[in-house]
Structure formats: C-alpha cells, structure tokens
Amino acid sequence: MTCASLESALTDWVQLPEPNVRCMPVTRRVAILLFEDCSFAVTVMLGEIFQAANEIASSANRNVRYELRFLSVTGGNVRCSSSICVWTDGLDSWHCVGFDTLFVSDGTGASAAARDERIVNWLRRVHANMIAVQPLGEGHRLFRSACAHAEPRSVGVEHGGAGETEGEEREHTSVRLELMKGALILLKRDIGDDCARSVAKQVMPDTLSAFPSLLGGSPDRDTADRVHVAARWLKDNCQRSITIEDAARVVDMSTRNFQRCFKIAVGVTPSAYLMRARFAIVCSLLTHSELPVDKIARHTGMSSGDRLAKVFRRQLNVSPTEYRIKTRLEAGI
Q1: Which of 185, 266, 200, 257 lies closest to 229 in space, CA to CA?
Q2: pLDDT of 7-34, one tens digit each?
Q3: How far apart are CA 192 and CA 186, in angstroms?
Q4: Model confidence over 249-284: pLDDT tens digits?
Q5: Strand pairing partners for 243?
Q6: How far is CA 102 from CA 22, 37, 89, 197, in A?
Q7: Does residue 267 contact residue 185 with C-beta atoms inside 8 Å?
Q8: CB 142: neighbour CB atoms within 10 A?
Q9: CA distances from 215 to 167, 208, 218 (A)
C-alpha cells in the first residue's frame, strides 16, 4: 500500500469544507459511550444540544445534520442514574470508525467501566484512530485507564461566571460546561459561530458567559478562507518535512496570526492538526503495510523511527511495533 492511497485515513478525524463551495448535505455522527450507572442527565443534555443544532442549522440553510448514537460494551438496555434505561448499540458494531466525535459519559459507574478490558481496549483503539474523544466528569477516569499518557482535547473553562459554585452544584456545573464546550467546538467547525451561539443560548443560556473566547469574534471571511487553504496544504503535504511557518507563508500570514486564526477556525492548533494527519497515516501504514518503522517515519515527515517511537509512547503507551502486532491481529491480517 502506498502513502498516496491513504488519504482516506485523514478524513475520519476532521473534514473541512472547501471555502466558498456549496457541498452536498453532510451527516456528522456523534456518539456517547454509556455504562451502567452513567449519568442520565448527560444523555438528555446531549440529545437536546444536537436536536437544537439540527433545527438551527436547517433554519440557517447549513448543509450539516447531526446523528447522535448511544454505545455500550454489549449493546441493549443500559441502566443509567435514577434507574432509567437507554437503548444502545454495541461497540463491535462501530469498529472504532464511523463517527466524528465520541463523548464518554459522566457517572458513578465509570470506575467499574474502567476495569472492563473490553471498554478500555475499544476506547484505546478509538483514540489511536484520531477520533476526537471528550470525557465528561467521571468519564475522565475511564479515559485515563485507556490512554494513560494521552490527553483529550482541553475542556478547561474560563474563570468566573457559571463556573463559580460549590460542592455538588459546582461538580454538576463543571460537567455541563465540559459538555457544552465539547459540543460548541464541533458546532463552530461545522455550522459557524452564529449557529453555535444560538444553540448555546437555546439549550444552556447560563453557560454563555463561561465561553467568551469560544463564542467571541471569528476571523473575517478572507482570513478564514486562507486558513482553510492552509489546512488543506498541511494535510496534502504532511508526509514531507514541513513546518507551521511554511504553512503560514503559503497563505501570506505571520506565524503568530496564523496560529491564532487557525485555532479559532479549525478548533485545534496547526501543530496538532499536522501531527494528527501524520499519525493517521502512520497508524494505517503500520497496520496495512510491511514497511519498516524507520521507513514509515521518513515517509510521514516524522524524521526517524526514534522520534516516531517517542510519539507513540506518549500518545498510546505502546511502541509502533507493539501497535502493529496488536492491530494486525485484531484485523485478521
């Protein structure tokens, strides 16, 4: 398998619309991982957020629709808090792909779920496939069990406003803010600032003051178009030894301004975007080719096998060779 044939590996974790091009309707699949004694309130809030997003996006003639799926280790009914059951699909039906973002539910059952090797191994493979994972509350415990040396996307909130409460109320508010921020990052990317702000105002108006930077001003259309061009250039050239400064020069922007505008428009830093592009290709090559690790590193702009090994250890707590053996075995190769 050649590197050129692996472009599809990049599209699983982020898809950017071409500037000023009317796309065909797109379905974004969002999943939430549930377990026994997970939070029913989180499940309801996510449903409300993405139902509102679909209504607002349709009214604004956006060509994106969200589909929310509930997942559990075996599928079927899962008993949430307050003894309320939710019907779920089994993890095997998704095979670590097929959705854009995964939320990991809050709830007292997270500790028991963190000891279930089936859930932990599946979550580890999801993270290795560069799918955005957003743990909520106690769900961080489960995420850490699967990816001990990795970090999910930052879910910190600004000080003040809705975040300043005490005790159980503060803990509940923190989970709501984590959930809202994770959803807003996705909504901003897909349907724009105005629609994302409308969703927050409709579903959780008390959270608006907690996200001044996230819901604040965005780059103008020309700057946003240039950022999208640069993102495409980074993806197309990720197998070369390129830098963020190179990408900024491609669109005639200063490095500092480019990094700031890129984070606002895309939701991640240019460095993280480039690393994810490279890592997606590396994972596919390790699984589906016989190329040595050193050669894979050189093919994907990682400079050397030693550097690639360090990245793997940091992200997945395994070596590239261990990852290759495990994923090829699971894929039956």
Answers
A1: 266
A2: 333 334 444 444 444 556 688 889 999 9
A3: 9
A4: 999 999 988 988 888 778 788 998 998 888 888 888
A5: none
A6: 27, 19, 14, 21
A7: yes
A8: 28
A9: 27, 8, 8
Q: Which of 233, 270, 226, 218 has the alpha carbon at shortest distance from 252? A: 226
Dig out the tokens for 331 from the structure: 């894929």
Quote the CA–CA distance of 277 and 299 in Å, as a whole number: 13
What pLDDT was estimated at residue 80?
93
pLDDT in tens, 176-189: 888 888 898 889 88
What contacts 331, CB < 8 A, 6 or more positions away?
A: 287
35 φ, ψ to 5°?
-150, 170
69-82 per-residue burial string, b: 16 or more CB within 10 A, e: under 16: ebbbbeeeebbbbe
Spacing of C-alpha 141 from chain mean position: 18
Total residue count of the chain as it appears in this document = 333
> pLDDT digits over 110-137, tens only?
999 999 999 998 888 887 776 788 899 9
Q: Could you tell me the pTM of the whole model?
A: 0.59
Q: Give me the torsion for CA of 288, 289, 290, 292, rounded to 10°.
A: -110
**Percentage of residues in the chain with pLDDT exceeding 70?**
79
Could you give all domains of the chain from N- to C-terminal order, each with its CATH number?
A: 8-210 (3.40.50.880), 218-333 (1.10.10.60)
Looking up tokens 């409460």 gives: 165
